[in-house]
Amino acid sequence: MSEPERENGGEAVNDSTATEPAEVGSSPSVPPPVAAEPTVEDKLVSTQAEAARLRDQLLRTAADFDNYRKRTLKDLQEEKRRAKEDVVREFLPVIDNLERAVSASSGASDVTAIIEGVRMVLKLFEDQAARLGLTKVKAVGERFDPAVHDAIQQVETDDHPPGTVIAEVVAGFRLGDKLVRPAMVVVARKGPAA
What we know:
single chain; 2 domains; three-stranded mixed beta sheet; elongated
C-alpha cells in the first residue's frame, strides 16, 4: 500500500495535484473567436439610423409643443371670456336699475326722487365694484402722486400747500393693487410773490 492509502485506512485518496482530463470538444491550443471590428460602412449605417431616430423624436417633440401652445392659447382665450362674463353678470343689476330710472324719469315731476333713484343705482354700482376689488384712488386733499394722479391743470393758490390735489376732474380706479386708470386732477402751486 502506498502512504496515502495507509493514512486513510487503506482507501485510495484523490490527489488534488493530479491533472484532470480536458473537457471533450475543447482544444487548449485554439483561441476563442474574436469579434470583427465594424467597418466604416457599418458605422455609417449605424450613425444614419441614430440620426433618423433623433430626427423623428425631434419632429414629434416639435408637434407636441405646437399642440400644447395651441391648447394653452385656446384655454387662455376661454378664461378671458369667462372672466368678462362674470364681470358683466355682476353689473347687469346696475343696468336694469338705470333703465328703470330712465323710464320712471320720463313721467316724473319730482326731480329729487329722480336724483335719489340715481344715487341708489350709483350705490349699487359701487357695491358691485367693491366686490370685484375695484376701488377709487384718493385724490382731493392728498399730496400729488404721479404714480396714481394725472395732473391736467395747476392753479396758483395760497389756500393749499403747493403740490396738493385741490380738485378731481375724473376719478381714478385700482383693481386690487393694479392701477386701472389714474385720477385726473387739479394741483395747487405756490401763488405769485407779493
